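Form 7-S
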Amino acid sequence: YEQGVDFEWADVIAFAATLGMDAVADVTELTINDFAVATVEALDVEVKGTGMTLIEKLVDDGAVTVEAAEAAGWSFAPEIAEAVQSGDKEITVTFTNAVDSATVKLKDGIFTKYSTATWSTDMMTLTLTTLTSLVNAKTYTVEVTTADGMLSADVMAYAPVANSIAITTNELRDASTDVVFSVMDQYGDDM
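Output:
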């Protein structure tokens, strides 16, 4: 954050409070302990434009090890950031941090629905692909068990509907010219 752009010096305490840094806002004479408290608060604040807290950015930059951050009380265990239907037979799960290893299940009520799991190279995105179409207006549960515990997310499935039509015929010469087109569903798949 930049003085003169994001905040003015006269309003620095109020601005810090909007970021969740308010533990020492009422202190009139700062002690070493107050500075330590404010520093710890700052580590949990998102660094502008990064989507990461300061501690996450320091770990990402290699300035602090994951082990040191975890020993100080921060957790880097993955959590499910988002789980969405991404195709007629597909659910995509995005995690907050890389998943080292996991057991994955796609649950249909009490039953496990057969699916194949494909992980992104950074181990932060999981794509589950089923053999059959997901049932319209049905809720499926993704269960991911890691060394840190079980994570789960519900996903409401929707049947494919036409979302766009692309005409690929470049020229109509006469009434006998075939018009070639494709219809795409809301997931970007050809219908």
